[in-house]
Amino acid sequence: MKRLAFASLFVFTASTAFAQVHVAEPWVRATVPQQRSTGAFLKITSQEDARLVAAQSPVAKVVEVHEMKMEGDVMKMRAVPALDLPAGKTVELKPGGYHVMLIDLHAQVKEGEVVPLTLVVEGKDGKREQIEVQAPVHPLAAPANGNQHGHGHGH
Amino acid sequence: MFATNRASCWRQLFAAACAALLLGACTNEPMFTATDITGATFGQDFRLFDPDGRTRSLADFRGKAVLVFFGFTQCPDVCPTALIRAAEVKRLLGADAGRLQVVFVTLDPERDTPAVLREYTAAFGADVLGLYTTVENTARVAEEFRIFYRKVPTGDSYTMDHTATSYVYDPAGRLRLAVLHAQGAEALAADLKTLLQSFSR
After folding, report:
1. Which of A107, B107, B179, B192 allows an S-S link to B166, with CB 3.0 to 4.6 Å?
2. Where is the signal peptide (chain A) (predicted)?
3. Looking at beta carbons, which residues of chain A come within 8 Å of B124?
4. A141 vs B77: CB contact, 8 Å cut-off?
């Protein structure tokens, strides 16, 4: 048991030590019962040019990276195949721009819960890295910056 | 003599400045930040159901300004943002908050059941009213209100493109303003104050 704990600690340390990607202030918008989808928002910074190519979460059947765009005053949301993460630049996924769309939720997502997210980032060399994020759930009526409950961190 | 001349000079300047200000007030400044669509012939009324199954129309809200937004609850971005703005506007209206009715009309009645609508709108304020109708009538109402919407498949589900414009009706039930999604809460609250001023409490 002790050994296992030590081993997992090592794995965790190792993955963060080599991680070139930092995620800050993740949050998920709460849902009401029977609401089958919602959005996750966060800030992501990669030390080297990379792309966010996929996301996963145990709370939803389908997870996609979406872009929200206004064309005139028509709102359009589309899945994007990949989101560019230029070296050293913080890319914000926030209302009015990009979000991680959680589709076909298995259950209501309630304020105060924490939603695990896995972000898959691909470097220029084609190597993929998984970043585990714990995103607190903010109220459905949380404003765009989502900053009601301080900061969350994921590495 | 010199002193009198100088005084009259100041008086003339002051008068000229006042005239310029008045002229500016009359010609330059529009009354509203939102688009004034007073006299529009579309979107005159609706007959929709509230979550209790009662038929509601604009006449039910006579005496109040009505802010109408069309959307769907599975929308993670624009719809909560529009309803958060509506809640903020109510807060900014202060003593006049009770003179504004916020209405959310779903474009996705297949998923937005009365129970979902009730819970969803309540998250933005106890008096926000969610309205729905059948799939067929939703298309008719949207057309009548010049609201574009379309299902877009994503994964094995769908999302929706839709017009994010809100409409404002005055307390007499006339369509007055088209509010863009980008207009902030402060500017919208100011528009509503202007609108409500011309109607007695």
Report:
1. B179
2. 1-19
3. 140-141
4. no
Tell me the residues of A at the B interface, defined by beta carbons under 8 Å apart. 29-30, 32-39, 61-62, 64, 66, 68, 70, 73-79, 95-96, 99, 101, 103-104, 139-144
pLDDT tens track for A28-82 = 999 999 999 999 999 999 999 999 999 999 999 999 999 999 999 999 999 999 9
pTM of the model: 0.82
Conformational region of residue A42, where left means phi above 0, alpha means psi within -120 to 50, and beta covers everything else: beta
Name every chain B residue with its beta carbon within 8 A of the beta carbon of A38: 74, 76
| Residue B79 marked in a binding site | yes
Three-state SS for chain A is: CHHHHHHHHHHHHHHHHHCCEEEEEEEEECCCCCCCEEEEEEEEEECCCEEEEEEECCCEEEEEEEEEEEECCEEEEEECCCEEECCCCEEEECCCCEEEEEEEECCCCCCCCEEEEEEEEEECCCCEEEEEEEEEEECCCCCCCCCCCCCCEEC
Q: Where do the structural domains in chain A lie, given as residue ranges?
A: 21-154
Query: Residues B176, B68, B82, CA angle at the centre, nearest 5°?
Result: 115
Which candidate, B125, B149, B184, B167, places its Cα nearest to that of B74? B149
Candidate CATH numbers 3.30.710.10, 3.40.1390.10, 3.80.30.20, 3.40.30.10; the one for domain B35-197: 3.40.30.10
Residues 6+ apart with CB under 8 A from B91: B97
For residue A143, give the nearest of B84, B120, B152 by CB distance.
B84
- Minimal Cα distance from A146: which residue of B? B81
* Nearest residue in chain B measured CA to CA from A78: B154
Q: For B100-139, how does the pLDDT look when each residue is reduced to its tens digit (9 = 90+)?
A: 999 999 999 999 999 999 999 999 999 999 999 999 999 9
pLDDT tens figures, B39-77: 999 999 999 999 999 999 999 999 999 999 999 999 889
Whether the ipTM is more than 0.90: the answer is no
Q: Where are the domains of chain B?
A: 1-30, 35-197
User: Was B18 annotated as part of a binding site?
Assistant: no
